[in-house]
Amino acid sequence: MKHKITALILFIFFLPFTVMALDVPSLKGRVNDNAGIFSSSQKQNLESTLAALENQTSIQMAVLTIPSLDGEDLEGFSIRTVEKWKLGQKGEDKGILLLLALEDRKVRLEVGYGLESELTDAKTGYIVREVMIPYFSKGDFAGGIIAGTAVVTDVVKGDKDISAEALSRSQTSQNRPTGRSLPFPFIFILVMIFFNS
In whole angstroms, what separates CA 54 from the centre of its chain? Predict the structure, then answer.
C-alpha cells in the first residue's frame, strides 16, 4: 500500500510536465514543414537534395520547422525528435537534424557521432551565423534553411571545406565559444537565437 501511495504522489507531481510536453510530429519525409515556410517547389527541391545526399553517402538529414516550442526547451524537444525519428544508419550515427522554431526565433543543428569530424561545432556555428542568419534577418526563413543545407551537404560530402581563418573570424565576431553537450546518440552542436525581435 505504501508503494502505491508513493507511486501516486510521483505520478501527480510529474503529470504537469508530461501534459506540457510538445508532441514530436511524425516523420513524413526529409522535409517536415510544420511552420509552413516553404513553397511546394522549394520543399520538393530540398527533398531531392537530401535524398541525393543519402543515396551518395548514406547520411540521413531531415529538416523540421515548427511554429513554436510552446514554452518547451529547444534542446529537450530536439533530442526527443531525433530519438523518435532515429536519424542515421544503425551503427553509424550519421544523421543530421535541422530544427527551426519560427516564433521562438531559434534554430538548432544536431549531428550524429559518425559525422563529428566532418561537422565540428565550429563549422556548424559558422554555417548558422554566416550562411543562415543573413537570410533569417530578412525574413527569408526558407532561403536560410536551403542555403544552410547546401553548405552542410557540401561539407559532409567533401566538396567544400570551411577554412580555419573563416571559422576564427566567425567565432570572434560572435564573441563566445560554441557550447557542446553529449545527448546519446547525437552530439549537440549549436543552439542560437538568430535575430532579435
Answer: 17
